[in-house]
Design goal:
Blueprint: E1 3-8, H1 14-26, E2 30-34, E3 40-44, E4 59-64
Antiparallel strand pairs: 1-3, 1-4, 2-3
InterPro entries: PBI_I9, S8pro/Inhibitor_I9, S8pro/Inhibitor_I9_sf
Organism: Sordaria brevicollis
Protein name: Inhibitor I9 domain-containing protein
Length: 71
Amino acid sequence: MPSYIVSLKDNASDAEIQKTKDDVVKQGGKIGHEYTLIKAFQAIYPDDVVHSLDNHEHVKGVEADQEVKTQ
C-alpha cells in the first residue's frame, strides 16, 4: 500500500492534528508512524483509494514516503 508523510502547519493544534488523522481514516487510510519532533505522521492508503490531503486546511505538505540515504 502506498505510504505518505503528511506534514502539518506549525500552528496546527492537537485537535486539528487529530481531525486530520481522522480524515485519513475516513478516506480508507491508516495512520502509521507519528512523529514527535515535528508535526507530521505517516498515512497509508490502499492502492485504489484517492485521497485529498493536499487541500486540507491544516496540512502543510504531503509527500511519498521513501527511504532516505546519507553518503
